[in-house]
Amino acid sequence: MPNIDLAVSTRRDLNAALHALPANTNETQWHVANPDGAHALAAGVNAPVTIEIDGHAGYYCAGMNQQATVIVNGNAGVGVAENMMSGRVHVKGDASQAAGATAHGGLLVIDGNASARCGISMKGVDIVVKGSIGPMSAFMAQAGNLVVLGDAGEALGDSLYETRIFVRGTVKSLGADCIEKDLRPEHVEILTALLNEAGVEGVSPSEFRRYGSARGLYNFHVDNASAY
Q: Is it the case that residue 228 has pLDDT exceeding 60?
């Protein structure tokens, strides 16, 4: 198992080694020590490996991830899993703003809370936050699922497209064109699968409310001008 100590090696050394991995690599378990909040850790990885970061990560950790499993044993800064395409990113602490921003696929799990704009412009990723999320989360979110076991801040789902939002706690306010919708059997199935994949136990899908787009802003209409 490769062990990279960032007190000795550089972040560039780490990412260069990860980027050089072939698709059939047998170096599948990586451990990163002493991250000390460094930015862009394990960014741009495209290999079926597991990378465990033992401590806090800075901005854009696991950005553009493909295939890899990245585990952060601490908190993560702005833009964790930003533009992720596939794989899994697991933050065992809290995440700062824009977690999972523009991500196209894969699963992002945050054990703690996520700050503002969680899931902004998400394009197919699944995000499970076991704590609460901040304001303007899922802004202009286009596809995928956002699951929140705690509460949601102001303007949830503002200018939402087709992302499904499930919140177990309270929602401070909904953004423009975001409304509560029925939790149908197909949504219970999706939610059950995501809770299981995120390792959430003892929580029933029936405890959640579903929010989605009212589809009133898809096309410009003068009656909606004040909402643009």
A: no
pLDDT tens-digit readout, 143-156 = 999 999 999 999 99
Q: What's the helix, strand, coil split of the chain in %, to 5?
A: 15, 25, 60
Measure the CA angle with vertex 200, ends 198 and 206; round to 5°: 115
Which pLDDT score is estimated for 112?
98
**Taking Cα atoms as reference points, which of 91, 90, 124, 129 lies closest to residue 106?**
124
Query: Which residue has 């945050």 as its token pair?
Result: 110
What is the total residue count of the chain? 228
Q: Is 134 left (phi over 0), alpha (psi -120 to 50) or beta?
A: beta
Rounded distance, CA 209 to CA 124, Å?
A: 20
Instruction: State the Rg of the chain over Cα.
Output: 18
Residue with tokens 């806090």: 56
Largest CA distance in the chain: 61
For 34-44, the pLDDT digits (tens) are 999 999 999 99
